[in-house]
Amino acid sequence: MIIIDDLLFRPIVGIVDALHTVALNELYDIEEIQDELKENQLLYELGERSEAEYEDRKADLEDELEIAREVHEQLSSGRVEVKT
Asked: In this structure, what is the dihedral angle of CA atoms 70, 71, 77, 78, given to the nearest 10 degrees?
């Protein structure tokens, strides 16, 4: 019975784990968030974004970047936690 479980269950778990990792990497893309920070700065410097909008967006993006770095750290250490 254990052999059957290993043959049937482990490949499915491996696939789900790989899909989960890909989804987290896409959702928490550090480079994309950094690009958005640069774009926000550029829009502010060009005068297309007010200082208040710039500061609000910058704070949001910095929070997202911190979360993304934590997620990538957890992924690399193998200790991913799902919180609700």
From this structure: 150
pLDDT tens for 6-29 read 667 777 777 887 887 888 888 889
Helices (H), the chain: 2-27, 30-45, 51-77
What pTM did the predictor assign? 0.70
Q: What's the mean pLDDT when you consider all of the chain?
A: 85
In one-letter notation, the amino acid at residue 61 is L
Largest Cα span, the chain: 68
Measured in degrees and rounded to the nearest 5, phi and psi for residue 83 equal -110, 145
Between the alpha carbon of residue 24 and those of residues 10, 18, 38, 50, 82, the distances in Å are: 21, 10, 22, 32, 11
Task: Report the distance separating Cα 65 and Cα 25, nearest Å.
Answer: 13
Structure tokens belonging to residue 68: 């993304």
